Automatic annotation (TrEMBL):
Residues 59-243 form the AB hydrolase-1 domain. Keywords: Hydrolase. This is Alpha/beta hydrolase. It comes from the Bacteria. One of its GO terms (molecular function) is hydrolase activity.
Amino acid sequence: MHGGPGLGPVFERARFPDASQVHWWQQPLAKPCAARPYLDLQDAALAELRRVSEERGAPVTVMASSFGAHLAVHLARRAPELIENIVLLAPTFNPEQAALRLARRAFRVHIDHEHAGKLAAALAAYDDDPGRPRFWDVFGALSLLPDVTSLYFGPRGAQAAVSFLELIQQPGAFDGPTSVATSDDFSASDHTPVQSLFTGPVSVLFGAYDPMIDSEQDSAVWKVIFPQAVFSRVETGHFPLLELTLEECLNPA
């Protein structure tokens, strides 16, 4: 399950065209005027898990990236018997704070850019009055800076960054309205970490160059949810699956 919300699996499919054993799930778009788009996404993920596990005739591996980790938590809570093991790749427990970390990183990198002052002002306004309206102001100012998506990747991920920038412009790669609606609905829910009913193997990979995650802070939260989790630090940015091999993600050293 890829990140986002609003992202499609075009990046993973392009990266691993021969991975026929992997089901790259195309998450549904938020319905117009949906009352609870995040809850709709949870329901869709659960239905997809049940369909895939029934087709396989056995529990499956759930691999989730970034925001997708919250869908993995939901599946583990609702249908732990259908899951063989869980792999979380750069899981963002608090997506809003993760995006703000990215914005602050982008400001430091592009401090001399003509629009850097707009981002600084938006960040200061958010700090004075946190909330979704000010958050989206930050996001809008962030979009004025160049090469922001390149910050997702580590020093060895230059080619992955180029590919990401090319693919994200394709139809189906990203849906803005779905991202906004689902993110806002998610932020309105309670996300106090609670220990999961799933007791099988869990591995968590954090990128050493991830601009969105504080691995020390976030690992403590994920440890509450999955006490059995094994944590690894890999030489990537925020998308380990786009910089490492599939085998390295599923079986980190």
